[in-house]
Amino acid sequence: MTHERGNGLVQHRWVNLSRYEEPQVLAREEVRQALRGRASDSRIDDAVLVASELVTNARQHTDSGPSCMNLDVYQDIAVMWIHDRGRDADTVRQRISAAGPCAEIPESGRGLYLVDVLATKWFVRPTAEGKAVVAVIELDAADTTPPTLQQDPRS
Question: pTM for the whole thing?
Answer without folding.
Answer: 0.79
